[in-house]
Amino acid sequence: MLVGGFPCQDYSVASTLKNSHGINGKKGVLWWEIYRILQEKKDKPPKYLLLENVDRLLKSPASQRGRDFAIILSSLNTLGYAVEWRVINASEYGMPQRRRRVFIFASKKDTNFYNNLKNNSISDNLNTKGLFAKTFPIKEINKQKIITKKLSDDLVDITNNFNIKTPKINAFWETGYMIDGIYHTSRIEVDYNGEYSVLGDFLQDEDTVPKEFYINDQELKKWEYQKGSKSIERVNKITGHKYTYSEDSMGFPDCLNKPSRTIITGEGGASASRFKHVILVNGKHRRLTPIELEQLNMFPKNHTEGVTDTKRAFLMGNALVVGIVERLGNTILEEIN
User: Fold this and answer.
1) Residue in 74, 50, 71, 76 with CA at minimum distance from that of residue 61
2) Which residue ranges make up each domain of the chain?
3) Topology (CATH level 3) of domain 199-320
4) Known catalytic residue: 255?
């Protein structure tokens, strides 16, 4: 099995969809390194791939929504793989962080997964019998809402023409699979009835929290400004055009009775920020500690110990929610054994 995640900055919601450069971006081109590995191992290729990225990948680039993902699917098809995908928000399946990511699973011809996709009905694959359907249940998809289309096997053709007539309409939705160059995709509703985890379940004992994580009254005003609504007049440095930049207010402090917001790479450091977490415990405001960030990603405590706190936070901003991968791994093991 080849496991990985090619860097996601070129698709990330941190930049606007219009400005994302997708698979042609400097970091997005690392997809072709995965492709190169598969090609060079063609005499003994990995039977399976498990990849992860931001869900923006399914919509990139803005001018041809889905083109980049279509290139990936077509590339894997020519190498003899079937591909399943699912956008998963960890918190919707009981995990402690609201983090949406697309997971991609590819299986080589003649594996159990490939044969099952080949032999089962489209509806069964999407609803109950695919890898993601087995691992992360969804409400039954109406057959009429499943989109089925054929992919070109010419990557130049895809690059120039994919979704060119309806560029603002999504070609790929939250779940789907591709086999023999034909893909099926649909929107989904989560079907989960288990227990839910919340931010407050993962806090350290306050006696063990270093003092530098607490925010004094003077600094708190800066945090309140960052988290609050604002409307600021700005001027484009190139054109001189004046415009108004606006932000809505955010919940402040973060709610302890809900899953945490998405952990970002800039979570560390004491400077006030709109996107860092701030909690209120025993009447005191503070930031989250590295251990708490690890726990919200379901890593063992002190998994990142050995580097600075800022770096530990950065690592957690780039990490996966472990519970998702663990569940997928268990399903894969059951199938191949």
Assistant:
1) 71
2) 2-194, 199-320
3) DNA Methylase; Chain A, domain 2 (3.90.120)
4) no
